[in-house]
Structures are given as structure tokens and as C-alpha cells.
């Protein structure tokens, strides 16, 4: 029977960070990171891996089984072991790896943060949600909160003394944030409002890990306009606090109940009542009516975080499945299937199991590469003094964020489902780790903007910025990279993927044409297929890049399995995944409007 | 908020059964069914729909939450309401609709049984598993059990007084049934053996619905050969019984524990100990070493049953999602997205929601059509006196069974996942019905032979029978049907799907060529993609057929939404699904062997 222990592909993380992206060199050019080097990064990853394995992985399955509990009085208890794990991560500064060290963070590059997130979320996604939302909220407060206290608050959050949440959704306002009805009435005290309403699906709306919780709440001030533009953002603490952070009275933001759900049972999903019995005080963040803009500062980062979750679960699932397939003995080699005396073999030897594992490997490794490339763009964007360069880098992040969020979460789910299939019947039972991963990762396609919303953001907004400027900038770079690969001896696969890039561009043009012809429904119906196609093409380009780097390294390091694997990844991608991207391109350009017939779904 | 009530597409069932397949006419030609007519069938479906809605749907979510419990003494308690529902279905004769009426069944055609299964499994799959396995085991006993008692036993099972199970899997023998180690030692009593061993994953291994349970157990007699050919089949009752069926002593087949699992919580998944503390008596079914052959009688029927489960969940999920999308008001029409004053609309109006629903609709309706066509083949096969005709029909069922099992279960899962996405955040929480469907249906890709095993059965066995005779017979019929569609005015889609049929044939030839070249691993690595491609092509042909029938009916019945929908289904299939089948064909013929590199997964 398998040991089914959690593991991390540290060697592949090193390959991507150092061999492929030369992250240590790119980061050395950024003043904030000038004193960090490869050795520091490797030591950080090694310690992160240990924490993931020793501290978080052991609480994942028990936390899933136990779930959170609610006392009916507004208080949530997290599963056994969560508080102890929070303390361990808190003391080591692992909750906010890329927050400024002068404010209690660890001052690491975002790219290293993403590596750590892969490990820690892969080990226990439900637990890490508390950290992710806390850090996201802290950044908004640090940038736009009350000047006198913003640093104090952010420090308490970055260090995990206080928690944070984002409160957008209401029962009648999920994807349509603009339908928010929560009200905020000014008081005599400047900047202080009384909030009334009910928010739902609030992750970490209450928990017993931190002494206080700061909710960021979207609400509408009196006489504000309809839609998203009439929304303002408020900082709503669980407990009031003074300028030094000493806690005062309980505020009127209270959890009314928690949801039973498919997965992430260790993460409390709360209905949060504001006002009602007890006044709920909130402090305006930024200006009135600036709420959606500020919330999107947090949301954009959160979307990258969700893409990382999708990948983290994929990586964990693949590693479990690979480990299981190597240990589980069953059936004879297909070459000896007719011999009664042939020995039984590990199932990793069966071709269909290898096909499943290969699919998982290619996706997990290509997503890792894609996310870390993106993370370095974020690091460079934050660091540059050149406004034009910052705008270009920001544009790249803006373009890719919805694609990565949608692709890594949908593919992450598929990889987890594939891991269940490798385990067979054992994959379906709770004794083994993979069915939980399927249930946990499913939320990633839904929250922080459903993947349908991501696709509409891409097709309806990002593709249209500057007349397609972001897309054209990306495409030129992609074609350059593929041309370099052709030059370097990978002509076959590089050209195959280049054709997909062309088809992607033609698909984008086609959708733009539909828009111009006022066939906006027909265009938006293709938004998800287009986003998926774009995501697959991005993954394919990473496969090319990795194969190129691996080929170069093999000249000095020989045929290390990891390096040989990169060539195989590319072959598999071109043979088995690229045709799906091409098929999507054909669908997108089909002009099909069948689903729009009003006779349907009646 | 949505009512989220369970519903059945009765109108589409009528369309398929009567308008498309003329099942009532086909069945009228079968003597056993000569006295049945369309009116009887419609009344039966109407009552089945009522039972599904009123009796089973209400116990589905509570049973999922409560699950089965085990007392540590071998006894399983099913969730609240299961016993009452069992009595209702038992009294009405709904547990074994197609079993002979002279033995307690309802004597209905298998095609009608499949319609009822769609409704009843869709309403509560976990509950219906007890019935399905009982009926399957009863059929084996009726055909091959002890002559003196087989009818008595079968009657008790068909009427739901006794239950039944199939016991193949052991901890070291899942997909490799031939590795079974359970032992059977003859006693002095003829035909009676003492069994020793442990079976796992036994659905319904114990329950509190029936007074007795008859396990069908694979075990190895002394000196029997290795592999599947040394296995014999035994009838192992929970309680001994006499020739009249009066119960005697408790037999030594006892549940040792039940599994926690991802879904189907209402169905007990048991570890069954045989022997040990207490002798376990079993009666040989058929001859020694005939076990696998007899078990496959049950297994083949069970595989069709699992395909029906996959479709049933898809149909239920689509109906939930459609109902929710029509009721859930959120967001403005995309045409008015910039107007703050535009009214909010039901989400069914949003193009991406329509795309998701359309995908679900096409799959659910095409699977229904495919399964009922297959069910009628089974009915005709059972009825015919002509050995050649029987062999031909049997061959068709043999060819299609693994494809339908794999396709309907994988697609059923995808449809359920799509339904969750339509619900958005609400889809993820237990208060709404769809996340349970995802968890329940996932087992269908695994049990009764994983979908990888189905694919190996198709490519390694079924395609090779008679030098490809089954495939050629199917292809000729398919081409004939497509030619007729072309003739009747559907040239575009029929030819597009015809090209996919050609590519499927070329893919089959390609795999055969790999086999001949002794590249058996490379061939088997494509077994699952080939099976999926075949399944998609089958679904496409059903779309063509349905569009053809609908076009004819529109001449007299006008543009009924159901009829218009069939034309739209075909358009959507050709635009959005067929390209995926083509892409698979390209993958299959890629000669890719990347995943076979021994450097990988080490």
C-alpha cells in the first residue's frame, strides 16, 4: 500500500527559477532584493518545503473531516491543529513572504512567494486561504487606509496577529458586484460610517487564529449612484482598536452562520451580518465611490493567488498520483498479459497510467513555469522607475491575469480528477488524499470572479485596451520566443505552436469582428473557449522554452531525467494537448449561434 | 432564490422512445411485449417520474449528509428514509422493472427500464445502487444457480425481499481481477464450499433494507490455475435458507467496516470478511473455473447500468442548472451592460450561461438517445430466435458497452461540473443539489471496470473480434444513417460527422498497425482517447438522427421548442464538440511515445 505522502517538486522549482528564468539574476537587479541571492532563495524554498510537509500536510485531511464549527454567537472554531500551525507560520514570517520586512513581512520577491504558495497551498489550501486574504487586505489598507494607522494595521496583519477578509458578495450580488445593496451612512465622526447589510461567502469571516479581523467591505453611501461606480470601500474591524492597536469594543460585524460545502472545509465560509442588533462601524478607505477600484487592487492580486492555488493542487495531485503509481503493484506488463506466471508490476508501467501521469506532469510543470514567469513580471513592475516600462509590464499582468486564473483553476481541477483516476477505487475514498483535492480545488473556478467572468474580462476588456495593444505586445514576444526556438533546433514543435498562436490571433480578430457587427452575444459566447485556448497556447510556449533550456543544459549536465522530461513534455503537448487548442480555435470561428435561440431552455 | 426541484425531461423521453426510435412499434413485434403499447409505456414513465420526484429526490440530499453507519458488529444502517422508499418501490414493482413478471419483476422491456433508471438514479443514485446490484445478481442466479432454488431466490431478489451484491475486488486485485486470492474449499456436501478471504469496495455489502443478502463471490478452488481462468463463482448468503426460502443461521460473511468516500454516501461501501471467526458457506454457481465468465454476465449488464447512471446524473444536473438559470436574477443584459438603469435579468440570458447549458443539453439529450437505442438492441437480442441475428445484435452490444460506460460516465461528470459552474458560488455549497451530483457521479468512471479498463476492452478485445468485424458492421450502419441524413437535407453536418467516422476508422487502423508492429504500449496509450473519440462520434450521430426526426415532425407539429432544439443541438455539436473528436483523432495517430520514456515518473 502506498505511503501517499505529500511532496514538492523542489528540483523543478529550481529548474524554472534558476535555469530557465534566471530569477536570481533578474531579481539581483532590483535594489530591494540586491542582497538576496540564489543561496538564500534555495534555503527559503527548502524550509518552505519542510513546513509544507511537516506542519501543513498533516492537518489537511483531518481538517477536511472535522471542518469549521460555529457557536451560533458569531464565533467560528477552525479545525484542530490550525491554531498551532498558524503560530508556527506566524513566528517564522511565512504568512506574508513578499510583504515589506520593515512591516513584518519577509521582504522576499513575489516570485519566491509564489513558489512558497505552491508548496503551502498544495499541502493545505483551506488553511492558507486565511493567510492569503489577510495579506491581500493588508496591502489595500497599507496603500489607502487611514494614514495615521495604516502601517500599524498592516504590520499586525502581515505578522498574522490580525486577520483580514474581502466582503463583496451579497445574496443578490455575486458576479454582478454592482448590485450590492449594503448601506453605509456617515456619522459625525469624519471618515466613520455605520454599515448595514449582509455579506455572504466571506472566507475567514470569523476564525480563532487571530485576535482581531479587519473586513474590507463594499457598501453604498447615501445618494451614491447605481452599479459598481457608486460603491465605497470600508475597513470594518471585528473589534474596535485605538491608534496603538489596543483592542476595544466588539463591533457590529458578526457571522450569522457558516456554509456546508463541497470542500475547503477548514476554511470558514461565512454569512456576515453588518449592523442589525448592534451598530457596525466602518472607516472609509480612499474616497467615496472609489470602492470598486480599490477592491480590484486586492482582487487582481487575489486572482493571481487563485491561479497559484489551482496549480498548487495540480502539483500536489500529480505528485501523489506519481508516488502511488510507483508503489501500487497490480496487473502484469501488457507485453506479458497472456502469461499466467508473469510477475505483477507497479501500475506506473501500464500505458494508460503513464498517459494520465504525463498529462498531469505536463500541465503541472507548464503552469509552474507560466506562473513564475508572470510573478517575475510583477516583481519587475513593482520595482521599475520607468513609467513606460511599468505600464508595459502592468499591461502584461492585466492581460494574463484572467487567463491564468481561469486556466490554472480549470486545469488544476482536471489534474486532480486525473489523479483520482490513477488511484482507481482508492482515489474515491477518504483514506487517500486525492478526492479531497478535487473537492477543494473546485472552488477556484468559482471564487474571485468565476471563470466565465474572467473570460468576459479578457474578451470584453483586456483585448480591447488600446485597440488590442496588450495582445499584440504579447503576440510579438511569443512569436519572437518561438522563432528563437526554431533557430535553436526545435522547429517542428515551435512551428506547430506558432500556428496555434496565429489561430489565436485570428480568433481574437474574429471576436472583434463579431463585436463590430453588433453580434455581441455570439462573441461573448466564445469568451470561455477563447480564454481556454489562450491558456493552452501559453502553456505550450512554456513547454517549448523549457525544452530549449533543457537541451542546452544536457550538453553539460547529461541526460538527467528532469531534463529529458522537458523534451518529452513538449512532444506530449504537441501530440495530445495542442490539437485541443486548435479545435477550440475552429469552434470560436464557427459563427455558431445555436445556444442563443430563444426557444431553448424554456 | 431558486426552488431547485428535481425534474425529468419526460417530453424528451417520449420524443426518443416514440418519435425517434418507434420503440413501441419495435417492441410490439416481440411476443413478450405484444400486449404492451405506447399508452402503457407513457403511464409507466409518468408514474416513474412521480416516484423519482416524490419518493427518491427528497431522500437524496439528507442521505448524502447522514450517510450509512456501521455498528462494528457487521450491521449497516442506511440513511433515514431509505427503508420507507425501498418499501414503496418494492410494493409497486419498481425495483426490477424488466425482470420477468412471473418471477416478481414487472416484465417491461429493457428500454423502459433504462428510462426509469434515468429518473430514479437521477433522483437518488446512491439508493438505486442497492436495487441495481440486487437485480444483476438475481439474473445470474436465475440463469446459473442451483436448479431447485434458483427461481425462488431470484423472485425474492426481484421483489426486493432479499438483496444482492457482486464481490470481485480485493485489496490486491482491483483492475487485475485475476489476482484474486480468496479461497474456496469443497465440503462433503455437493456444491458447497467454505470461503475464506476479504473482499473490498462491496456496494451494499450490508444494509437494512432487505431480510437477507446474497453475495456473488469470486474465489479460487484448491489447485485452480492462476489468473481469471482459475476463478469460480459462489453464492454466499448473509443468512442460510432452506428450499422454501425460510431463513436459518447467520453465515460467516460479515462486513468488517465501511468506507468514508467522496460521494454516494447513502450506498454502503463495505469490506466483507469471509470465514475467519465463523465458517462462511458458499454454493458454487455454474461449474468450477467458470466464475469470470458468469461474473461477466452480470458485469456487462452492470456496465450498461453505470452508463445509465452517468447519463442520469447528467440529465438531473442539466435540469437543475436550467431551472436555476431561469429563476436566478443577476446582472444586466450584455447589450445594456453600460446602462446603470437596465433591469437585472435571469442569468439564462447571459451568453456564457447559455453556452454552458447548451453543452449540458446536447450531451444529456444525445446520451439519452444513444442509451435507448442500445437498450432496444438488448431487447431485440433477448427476443430473437434467429441465432445469426442474435449474434449480430450481441456483437453490437459488446462493441458499444465499453464506449457507453466510459463516455456516459466521463461526460456525465463533466455535465455535473458544468452545472456547478452555472450555479456559481451556490453550486459549491451543500444547500443546493449540484455539488452532490459531482461527488456521486465520480465513482462511475471508476467502478465496474475503470474507464481505462473499458478502453482496453474496446481496443484490445472488441475491435479485434473477427478481424474488426464488429467495428465494420457498426461503421457501415453509421455511414448508411449519415447518407440518409445527407439525402434528407442535412448534408453539411452529416458530412462533417461522416469525416469524423472516417477519421475514427483510420485511427482504429492506425492502432491495429501499431499492434502489428509490436508497439503495443504506444497503441494502448491511445485506448482512452480512442474510446472518447468513438463516444463523441456516437453522440454526434444521435444528434443528426434527432435533427432529422425533428425536421420531419416540424412539418406537422410546427416549431415546438423541443423540435427546434434538436436542430440547434446538431449545430452546436458540429461547432463546439465535433472539433474535439477530430483533435483526438489527430492525437491518436501522432505516434507519440513520450510518456513511455523510462526516465519519467522516477
TrEMBL record, chains A, B:
Residues 487-597 form the Acetyl-CoA dehydrogenase-like C-terminal domain. InterPro entries: Acyl-CoA_dh-like_C_dom, Acyl-CoA_Oxase/DH_mid-dom, Acyl-CoA_Oxase/DH_mid-dom_sf, AcylCo_DH-like_C, AcylCo_DH/oxidase_C, AcylCoA_DH/ox_N, AcylCoA_DH/ox_N_sf, AcylCoA_DH/oxidase_NM_dom_sf. It comes from the Bacteria. The keyword tRNA-binding does not apply. Residues 289-458 form the Acyl-CoA dehydrogenase/oxidase C-terminal domain. Its cofactor is FAD. Residues 166-272 form the Acyl-CoA oxidase/dehydrogenase middle domain. Belongs to the acyl-CoA dehydrogenase family. This is Acyl-CoA dehydrogenase.
Amino acid at each position: 500500500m502506498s505511503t501517499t505522502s505529500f511532496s514538492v517538486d523542489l528540483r523543478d522549482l529550481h529548474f524554472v527559477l534558476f535555469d530557465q528564468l534566471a530569477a536570481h539574476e533578474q531579481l539581483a537587479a532590483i535594489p530591494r532584493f540586491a542582497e538576496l541571492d540564489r543561496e538564500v532563495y534555495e534555503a527559503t524554498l527548502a524550509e518552505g518545503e519542510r513546513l509544507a510537509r511537516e506542519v501543513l500536510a498533516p492537518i489537511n485531511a483531518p481538517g477536511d473531516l472535522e471542518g469549521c464549527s460555529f457557536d451560533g454567537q458569531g464565533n467560528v472554531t477552525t479545525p484542530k491543529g490550525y491554531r498551532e500551525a498558524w503560530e508556527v507560520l506566524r513566528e517564522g514570517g511565512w504568512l506574508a513572504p513578499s510583504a515589506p520586512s520593515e512591516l513584518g513581512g519577509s521582504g522576499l520577491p513575489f516570485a519566491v512567494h509564489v513558489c512558497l504558495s505552491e508548496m503551502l497551498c498544495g499541502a493545505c489550501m483551506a488553511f492558507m486561504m486565511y493567510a492569503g486574504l489577510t495579506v491581500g487586505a493588508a496591502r489595500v489598507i497599507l496603500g489607502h487606509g487611514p494614514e495615521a494607522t495604516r502601517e500599524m494595521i498592516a504590520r499586525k496583519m502581515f505578522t498574522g496577529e490580525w486577520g483580514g477578509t474581502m466582503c463583496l458578495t451579497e445574496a443578490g450580488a455575486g458576479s454582478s458586484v454592482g448590485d450590492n445593496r449594503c448601506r453605509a451612512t456617515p456619522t459625525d465622526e469624519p471618515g466613520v460610517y455605520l454599515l448595514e447589510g449582509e455579506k455572504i461567502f466571506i472566507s475567514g469571516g470569523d476564525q480563532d487564529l487571530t485576535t482581531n479581523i479587519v473586513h474590507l467591505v463594499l457598501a453604498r453611501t447615501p445618494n451614491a449612484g447605481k452599479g459598481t461606480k457608486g460603491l465605497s470601500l470600508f475597513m470594518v474591524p471585528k473589534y474596535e482598536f485605538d491608534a496603538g492597536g489596543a483592542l476595544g469594543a466588539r463591533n457590529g460585524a458578526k457571522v450569522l452562520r457558516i456554509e456546508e460545502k463541497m470542500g475547503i472545509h477548514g476554511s470558514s465560509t461565512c454569512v456576515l451580518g453588518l449592523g442589525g442588533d448592534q451598530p457596525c462601524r466602518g472607516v472609509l478607505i480612499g474616497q467615496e465611490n472609489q470602492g470598486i477600484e480599490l477592491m480590484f487592487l486586492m482582487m487582481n492580486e487575489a486572482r493571481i493567488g487563485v491561479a497559484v492555488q489551482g496549480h498548487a493542487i495540480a502539483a500536489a495531485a500529480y505528485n501523489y498520483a506519481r508516488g502511488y503509481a510507483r508503489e501500487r503493484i497490480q496487473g502484469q506488463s501488457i507485453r506479458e498479459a497472456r502469461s499466467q506466471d508473469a510477475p505483477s508490476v507497479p501500475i506506473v508501467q501500464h500505458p494508460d497510467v503513464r498517459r494520465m501521469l504525463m498529462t498531469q506532469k505536463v500541465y503541472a510543470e507548464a503552469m509552474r513555469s507560466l506562473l513564475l514567469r508572470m510573478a517575475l513580471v510583477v516583481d519587475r513592475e513593482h520595482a521599475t522607475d520607468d513609467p513606460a516600462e511599468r505600464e508595459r509590464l502592468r499591461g502584461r499582468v492585466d492581460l494574463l491575469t484572467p487567463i491564468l486564473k481561469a486556466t490554472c483553476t480549470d486545469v488544476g481541477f482536471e489534474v486532480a480528477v486525473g489523479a483520482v483516476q490513477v488511484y482507481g477505487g482508492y482515489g474515491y475514498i477518504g483514506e487517500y488524499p486525492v478526492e479531497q483535492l478535487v473537492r477543494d480545488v473546485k472552488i477556484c473556478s468559482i471564487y474571485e470572479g468565476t471563470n466565465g467572468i474572467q473570460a468576459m474580462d479578457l474578451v470584453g476588456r483586456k483585448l480591447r485596451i488600446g485597440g488590442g495593444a496588450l495582445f499584440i505586445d504579447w503576440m510579438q514576444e511569443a512569436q519572437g520566443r518561438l522563432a528563437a526556438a526554431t533557430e535553436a533546433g526545435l522547429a517542428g514543435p515551435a512551428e506547430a505552436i506558432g500556428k496555434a498562436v496565429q489561430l489565436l490571433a485570428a480568433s481574437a480578430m474574429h471576436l472583434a469582428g463579431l463585436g463590430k457587427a453588433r453580434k455581441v452575444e455570439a462573441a461573448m459566447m466564445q469568451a470561455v473557449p477563447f480564454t481556454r485556448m489562450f491558456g493552452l497556447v501559453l502553456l505550450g510556449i512554456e513547454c517549448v522554452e523549457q525544452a530549449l533550456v533543457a537541451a542546452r543544459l544536457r550538453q553539460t549536465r547529461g541526460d538527467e531525467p528532469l531534463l529529458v522530461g522537458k523534451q518529452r513534455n513538449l512532444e506530449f503537448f504537441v501530440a495530445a494537448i495542442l490539437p485541443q487548442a486548435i479545435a477550440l480555435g475552429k469552434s470560436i470561428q464557427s459563427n455558431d449561434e445555436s445556444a442563443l435561440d430563444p426557444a431553448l431552455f424554456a
